[in-house]
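Please, structure for the following, as tokens.
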Amino acid sequence: MKLSLEEQPLGADHVFEVEEISFLIHEEEMVYFNQTKIDFDTDLLGRSNFKLIRV
């Protein structure tokens, strides 16, 4: 699986919006995101990142 920044969705992308942020997930990659929550976290050093959490 490859993560990248994209300007526009491709034809086979699924678009999800969370708090005004659009996430594009290609149809072939959807299997990895079933039963998954996307969370944004900032650690004690001020570094921010996205986490994928299985629910």
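DSSP finds no helices and four strands in the chain. The mean pLDDT is 87.
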